[in-house]
Amino acid sequence: MALHYPIDIVQDRNGILWIATEEGISKFDGTDFTSIKQKDGLSNDNIYDLELFNGDHVLAAGRGGIDLINIYTDSIRNILDYKD
Fold first, then answer.
1. Contact 2, 44 (CB under 8 A)
2. How far from 82 is each of 37, 38, 53, CA to CA, in Å?
3. Nearest of 38, 75, 69, 30 to residue 52 by alpha carbon
4. Do 63 and 77 contact (CB within 8 A), yes or no?
5. Cβ atoms 52, 60 nearer than 8 A
6. What are the CA-CA distances from residue 70 to residues 36, 76, 77, 83 (Å)?
7. pTM of the model
8. How far apart are CA 64 and CA 6, in angstroms?
9. pLDDT (tens digit, 9 = 90+) per residue, 3-46?
10. C-alpha dihedral (55, 61, 64, 68), degrees to nearest 10
């Protein structure tokens, strides 16, 4: 198993940690980790920046674009695609 170091970390209003890595986003709720990857809707797995947006979303910037993730549903919307 490869070890992937965190590139950026933000904490949302619910105390959830969102961790950007070169293999997608890891979400930590204090007990469990959940992975969010390109196969789940991210524009790319290589995420290098996370920012909180309007309190209910996380902006994730990666090699493929910028995604907006709802912190309650984990739904992902691509708002900028670098491949276009």
1. no
2. 17, 14, 20
3. 69
4. no
5. no
6. 12, 7, 9, 23
7. 0.87
8. 18
9. 567 789 999 999 999 999 999 999 999 999 999 999 999 999 99
10. 0
